[in-house]
């Protein structure tokens, strides 16, 4: 950790999309890439895609001692069919434990509890075993994933990851509102609140759980951009997105786990506070963290930095999730207001379609919650949406006002803080900014 303390953790490590993950990108791959034998981002150990034959040796060689925290990010398009294979390679540092593991997509409406990852209603994977989960991507939004075996322990130990679903609206080429109306014809993601004026809606059987109804104040907005939700009016448009996962470590809990002692769940108290598995100033270091293994080889971990670059006059979507098991966490923004557009993977609209989004300078989340925040680097916009008064270029800060969370235990420096840079331009794929100050 930042004060030199060694921290023992166990978690998830990637067995596909490895090159992308090392470059700070999500590791989710399309079928052609995943099945490319010998490819940089293909499935590790895959021998024959037609039969599914694998070579176990590469899986074990890469999987053992390869835990990352957070786990590989999963980025899915709405309506995608997504397959995830979990392989339990065991824990070489604790050979006395025969831990089972699962994958649970938190807040995610699975078609069947069989794939939910809760051991009571689904399957847990033993050491040496594998299991393939199937998902049909539901409503757009920010979710997250974790192991659901002994959650207080396994989440504290680092078995957490980020997950988000991009909206169908990104694929609309004409009117956003018309595209959203057409979406109602698909029963998989249709939304039917009570309405007397809106087409396609069920007048006699309204859905009280409808999460994203049509906006009441829509206009003639054309598609072609990127959006956080199916909003119909471009209110959740952004230029570049950043997944940010908040977590905390209790050093004593990890120490007793490393030294074969009983873990004190009741006394669990976090002393290290992390954004994407790092404390400041490591949050702004580009690329993965590099350490040297015992054999002298370089080993990458914690691949996601949290430095936020926004193009001048542009917008950044922050997909914030919290899987801390002991603390509430607060993040504040200085100089750039936060526009909160979604909470817990739901667009902030009431059942009449009215806008419930709001502006603030801080958000507070607890374990198991997510918030979608847009940072707008523009002080004033024209009616058409173009920026007339951009926020001055420079370095701003996203940090916690809880001062005891701005530290790495005994070292009074670090914790939940990162930098926001206003740049001339930003590549939305690599997140690399040009002309940043």
Principal-axis shape: globular
Gyration radius over CA: 22 Å
Stretches where pLDDT falls below 50 for ≥5 residues? Answer: none
Reported for the largest beta sheet, the result is: 7 strands, mixed
Structural class: mainly beta
Q: What does the average pLDDT come to?
A: 86
Distance between the termini: 28 Å
Q: What oligomeric assembly is this protein in?
A: single chain
Tell me roughly what share of residues is in helical segments.
under 10%
Number of helices, counting only DSSP H or I runs of 4 residues or more: 6
Strand content: 25-35%
How many strand segments?
A: 28
Tell me briefly what this model is.
The chain is built from six helices and 28 strands. The protein has 437 residues and is mostly beta strands. The strands form nine sheets. Strands 11, 12, 16, 18, 19, 20 and 22 form a seven-stranded mixed sheet that branches.
Give an account of the 3D structure.
By secondary structure, this protein is mostly beta strands. Helices cover 9% and strands 30% of the residues. The protein is built from 6 helices and 28 strands. The chain has helices at 18-22, 31-34, 56-63, 151-156, 176-183, 251-258, and strands spanning 46-48, 53-54, 71-77, 81-87, 104-106, 130-136, 141-146, 160-166, 226-227, 237-238, 240-249, 272-275, 289-292, 298-301, 308-311, 315-322, 329-334, 338-343, 346-347, 358-360, 362-365, 369-376, 378-381, 387-390, 395-399, 417-423, 425-426, 433-434. The strands form 9 sheets. Strands 11, 12, 16, 18, 19, 20 and 22 form a 7-stranded mixed sheet that branches. Strand 23 (378-381) and strand 24 form a beta hairpin. The longest helix is centred in the first third of the chain and has 8 residues, at 56-63. The radius of gyration is 22 Å and the shape is globular. 42% of the residues are buried. The mean pLDDT is 86.
